[in-house]
Structures are given as C-alpha cells and as structure tokens.
C-alpha cells in the first residue's frame, strides 16, 4: 500500500470491466522513439505497465513487419516519417499538445513534441482506467505554456535532512545534509506524477534560496535531478538568492548594474546550462520579507529581473520574477489607517509594465496578501498588459489546515480563475489573462507551490493529493470542473465503487466552505496564528503584527477599510467596474465584506443577521460539518484498503476535534472583544 501511496493516481489497478476493455485494445505496441530516457520511450513503458495492470493486457513490441492494428505512440513528425504513405487529417497541435485516436482497432497517440506524446499516453491510460477505450478522438492543447510547480525545499535544517518550508510531507526528496541526495528515486517518481497531469517544470529549491546551491558540486547534483526528471519531459528550475554575488561570489555588491555582478550571474548560468542544457530557468524572490533585491541598490525591480533574464536568453530559459514584494518593517512602523500591505504589488509593478525582457514572467500570488482562505483576485493581473504573468497557487495547505484538515481547493481556484476583472470594461477572466489570451502574451501560466516530501503519501495525506491532481488539470484546461476532476482522481486513486466516489465527493466538496466557516468568514482572512506557524486559531495575532496581515478588530467594529474614499485605497487598484463594486458596502460580495470594509459588529447583513451573529453561526456551522466527516468516512469501511482507510480516518477525527477548538476560540475571542452574546445562547452565557 505504501507503494500505492507513491503511485498516487497512477496505480494502474484492475478495472471491473477489464475483459471487455482488453478485447478492444490492440496487442502490438509501436514506440516511435526507443532511445532510453526519451519521453516517447517512457510513454511506451507506461503503456505496457499500465495496460498490464488495468486490463491485464501484455503488449508485444512490434517486430519487423507492422501489423495492421497497433497501439502507436510518438510525435506527429515521427509518425509521418515512419508512415509516409498513411494519410490522415493532421490535428492542430501546439507545444506539448497531443492527439489520440482510437478507431478500427488502431490506437494512435501522437504528441506535437515528445512530451506531448507522453501526456497523450497518460491521458489514454487514464481513460482506460476509467473504463473507456472504445472509438474516440481527442485533441488536447494546453492553455498556457508555463505549468510549473515550486518546491520550497531547503538544503538542510537544524538536523541533517533537507526540510521543506511550509511542507507537511516530511523531508526534502532532493536535498540532504546541504547537498543533493545520492538517491534520487523519489525525484523520478515525482516527475512521473507531474508529467501525468501536464506539469512541465519543477523549481526544486525554496524561494528563500541558499547561495551555496551554486557550488560546482551542487550544480553537479542539480544535473542529476534534471537527469531524473528528463525521461518525463519535466525541466528543472532554480530559485536564486539575489545576494549570491556577495554571499557566495566574494563580490562587494549585488547591484544588478555592476559589471562584475552581471558577469557573475552569466557565469553561473553558463555553468548550469553546460550541465543542464534544457534547464527551465530561474525563480527570483527579491525585496521581500527583509531580503535584498534591486531596490536595495536603487534599481527597479525590472532592472533586477532583466539581469537574470538576459543571462538566460541564449538558452531559451525563463525568469519567473515574484510579485510578492513588500517591506514588512516599513509597514510595522506605519500602523496608520492608510497602511496596507495589499497595495504593495501594484504600487511596485504598475509603472514597470512593458519594461521587462520578453523572457520574464511575473509570478503573482492569487490574492494580494498571502494564500488566505478567501481573497479577492490580485489586481496586479489587470495592470500587466505588456508583460507575461503567472498565477501562484498553493497546493500545500499553509493557511488551510496543513494537510491535517481536509480542504479540497479546486472550488476556490475555479472561483478565482473565473473572476472577471473587466479591464477596459471588456471580458477579462483571470484564466484568460494567465493563458496569455487576453493581452496576447506568449509566456504566461501557472505556478503551484506543492512541497511534497519523503512521506509515502507525498503530501502527508492521501486525500490532499486531489489538490495536486486538480492543479495540473486546471493549469492545462482552466474550465476543468472541480467536481469532475475530483471524480476522475477518485476513480484512479480509490477505484470504481460508486459509494467511495460519492463519499469522497461529499467530503471534499463540503471541505473548503466548512474550513472557511470555522477559520475566518466574510473575507476577514484566515484567523490563524500569523506570527509563526500559520496553524490553529489565534485571532489575537491578527492585529499589531509586523506582517501587515490585519483585521483592525476593536470593541465595536472589524475589517480593513480598503475603500478609495476613506480607506487604504486598495479597492481603487481594480479596473473601474470592479473598483466600483468593492468601493461600496452594498455591492461588495458578502464573503469579502470585511476584506474591503470596516464595519460595526452590529452591521446587518443581507441575511438579516448581524456580523457578530454571522460569526457565531458560521463557526458553529463549519465545525458541525467537520463533525460529520469521520462518520461519513466510516461508511467506507471494507470498501478501501485498511491502511488508507485508517490513515484518512485518523486525520478526519483530528479535524473534527480541531474544528471545535477553532469554533470556541474564535467565538470567545470576539465575544470578549465585543461583549455581544450569541442570540442562540451558545457563546458568552457560561
Ligand atoms: C509566506 C510563507 C513563507 C514564504 C512566503 C513567500 O509568507 O509563510 O514561508 O516564504 O510566503 O511566499 O515567499
């Protein structure tokens, strides 16, 4: 079962209608590139292994003469080379896209490139696993070229192993004792999972990067990671420490205009590409949370990003530059009504639009603060019209229960991606901005912070893996529905039993609303411990902290006034139609009302309830929903293996208890602040 955990949704378990399916699949496999390590060769291996597991079919490699019916996998070009006389309508494929046709006993899986062929093979296996192998034609292209994941892996921690910042699945799969692990089996297994959901690059180290990663020995190690990824078409990316010229290169400055600094970075890039010719590029966190960056040297953020981008250009690499730029020390000093960390990204980047090299992509967290349970879409997406942008999502549940709570995130991502920013009063869905469509950008897309670890479940929880699966599928096709992709993932992970599928759907779809209810509703942000762990309730830490994550709660009122007329001005950063909506209490969606407005606890919501009563009710409701989770899960006893059953149950029981801790802690805190008792007598009357 531990092995099954590692295989996640690629278990290739037998399906109920295996015999019928097997009869429809050709028995000969034609692999159009058999070079060891090529993605097409990997596709061939997956097809053999997969069909053996799923339907018990042993595929035979093709001999000298080709049978009329075969399962063929390769690129379109390889196919046309091998079959000059075969005529067929060429599908319209873009980079990484694939085409599958199943007809007349022939199966063709063709990619625009080798990676696309592998994606096609995984897609075909997923269809068969879901019981579908008969006549079909699929043409599938990714919406966005950048479909990356970020790992926040440290090279070491206080002990000996590589820790993972905000990682809840054990030590790093890449680093150990300040070096790259000798055994990179898990890196290859991770790449396999990622390829099966269309992810094309992994940034392997923490955005809070370590400069010693640039030593020749560590560069050799990084090349070994890239080698482990390559058969799966996954490229390696690196986070850089902006101050490396000083910290590692012995220079007296890291000024991006200094010639020796530019030469230092070009040398680093050349050394990396000599070892990893297909490296994806860099990720840079600069001038953020006390770290140095171009602003330290009176240069603009664009000056900094462009310096890295230029070193990458001859290799086709990309510089992902993070928009998570703010100075918390300054914010701490200015606890004025106007101070607002949420304003920082637009203030820094707005004037730089169009000033970036073409291979720079600005990586923007979905909301303006930091992965809260609910945030409005970052307004920066509407400001960058001449620069590629990518949305940063978190698969690792930093503020969302750290995988000890079940929180299925796809519904939240869907709401964000569907949000219409109405730039110039034209339809401007976030998904169309990050696909590059809205502003005609060629480089743009998705970055997901995943933070898997050595744990045999990868993320520390079996059910949390649906978030990773959904992330890849939504980055490929943003219209993917949260329920649909969940059903698919459940079938592949737990089998076809209708009750299993139904129970996991009920729990998962109820989980984000429940978590929001018991951890921070009405857009007040996740009322967690803001100072350090970001875990468990601590509403008291939400004000006066140096991080600029504030709720401005006092004895009478709560919420950040972010209006233009009276508050921090954040609402005014949106295009006019959206700005007008958030400016007024009446038109702000209530699930964000305290994000944008400072209101008395007695303010009456559309439901007729006061804000304080809504708080009490929501926390009771959310925790009551979490109470039902273990009982619902228990109905699956005997329907899934005992190990996974117990593993999940343990967490759900914990969540049910912890939801009560959340409920009571928050309700009591606001009762003590406001002195207003609960109308239903649950809070304040004992
Ligand atoms: C959050 C998170 C940090 C992380 C930072 C970032 O603040 O808690 O661990 O380094 O975001 O995204 O850079």
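-> sequence recovered:
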């Amino acid at each position: 079962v531990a092995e099954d955990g590692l295989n996640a949704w690629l278990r290739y378990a037998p399906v109920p209608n295996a015999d019928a399916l097997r009869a429809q699949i050709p028995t000969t496999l034609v692999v159009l590139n058999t070079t060891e390590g090529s993605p097409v060769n990997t596709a061939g291996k997956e097809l053999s292994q997969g069909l053996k597991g799923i339907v018990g079919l042993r595929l035979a490699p093709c001999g000298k003469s080709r049978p009329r019916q075969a399962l063929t996998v390769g690129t379109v070009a390889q196919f046309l080379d091998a079959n000059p006389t075969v005529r067929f309508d060429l599908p319209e494929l873009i980079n990484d896209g694939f085409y599958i046709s199943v007809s007349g006993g022939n199966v063709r899986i063709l990619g625009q490139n080798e990676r696309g062929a592998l994606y096609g093979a995984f897609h075909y296996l997923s269809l068969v696993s879901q019981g579908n192998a008969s006549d079909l034609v699929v043409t599938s292209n990714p919406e966005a070229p950048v479909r990356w994941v970020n790992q926040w892996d440290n090279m070491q921690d206080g002990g000996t192993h590589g820790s993972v910042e905000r990682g809840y699945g054990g030590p790093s799969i890449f680093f150990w004792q300040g070096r790259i692990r000798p055994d990179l089996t898990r890196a290859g297994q991770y790449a396999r999972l990622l390829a099966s959901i269309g992810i094309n690059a992994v940034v392997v180290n923490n955005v809070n990067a370590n400069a010693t990663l640039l030593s020749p020995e560590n560069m050799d190690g990084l090349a070994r990671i890239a080698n482990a990824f390559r058969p799966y078409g996954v490229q390696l990316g690196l986070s850089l420490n902006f101050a490396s010229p000083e910290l590692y290169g012995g220079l007296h400055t890291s000024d991006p205009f200094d010639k020796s600094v530019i030469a230092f970075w070009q040398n680093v890039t050349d050394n990396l590409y000599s070892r990893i010719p297909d490296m994806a590029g860099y990720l840079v966190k600069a001038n953020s949370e006390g770290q140095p960056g171009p602003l330290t040297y009176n240069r603009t953020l664009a000056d900094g990003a462009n310096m890295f981008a230029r070193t990458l250009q001859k290799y086709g690499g990309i510089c992902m530059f993070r928009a998570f730029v703010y100075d918390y020390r300054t914010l701490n000093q200015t606890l004025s009504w106007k101070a607002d960390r949420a304003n920082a990204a637009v203030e820094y980047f707005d004037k730089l639009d169009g000033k970036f090299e073409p291979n720079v992509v600005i990586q923007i967290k979905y909301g303006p603060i930091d992965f809260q349970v609910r945030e409005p879409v970052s307004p920066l997406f509407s400001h960058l019209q001449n620069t590629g942008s990518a949305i940063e999502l978190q698969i690792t549940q930093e503020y969302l229960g750290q995988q000890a709570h079940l929180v299925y995130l796809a519904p939240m991502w869907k709401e964000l991606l569907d949000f219409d920013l109405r730039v110039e009063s034209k339809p401007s869905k976030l998904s169309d901005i990050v696909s590059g469509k809205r502003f005609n950008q060629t480089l743009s897309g998705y970055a997901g912070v995943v933070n898997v670890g050595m744990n045999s479940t990868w993320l520390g929880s079996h059910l949390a893996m649906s978030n990773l699966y959904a992330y890849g599928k939504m980055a490929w096709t943003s219209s993917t529905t949260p329920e649909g992709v969940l059903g698919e993932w459940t079938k592949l992970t737990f089998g076809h039993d209708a009750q299993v599928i139904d129970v996991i759907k009920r729990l998962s779809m109820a989980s984000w609303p429940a978590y929001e209810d018991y951890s921070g509703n009405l857009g007040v942000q996740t009322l967690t411990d803001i100072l350090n762990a970001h875990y468990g309730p601590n509403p008291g830490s939400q004000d006066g902290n140096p991080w600029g994550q504030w709720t401005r709660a006092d004895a009478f009122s709560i919420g950040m006034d972010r209006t233009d007329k009276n508050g921090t001005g954040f609402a005014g950063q949106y295009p006019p139609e959206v700005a007008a909506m958030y400016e007024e209490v009446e038109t702000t969606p209530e699930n964000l009302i305290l994000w944008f407005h400072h209101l008395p606890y007695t303010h009456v919501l559309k439901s007729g309830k006061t804000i304080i009563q809504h708080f009490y009710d929501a926390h009771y409701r959310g925790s009551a929903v979490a109470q039902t989770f273990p009982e619902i899960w228990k109905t699956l006893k005997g329907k899934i293996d005992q190990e996974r059953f117990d593993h999940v149950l343990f967490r759900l029981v914990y969540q049910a208890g912890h939801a009560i801790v959340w409920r009571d802690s928050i309700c009591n805190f606001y009762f003590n602040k406001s002195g207003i008792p609960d109308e239903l007598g649950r809070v304040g009357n004992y």
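The pocket of alpha-D-glucopyranuronic acid is lined by residues 165-166, 207-208, 285, 288, 324, 370, 398 (CB under 6 Å).
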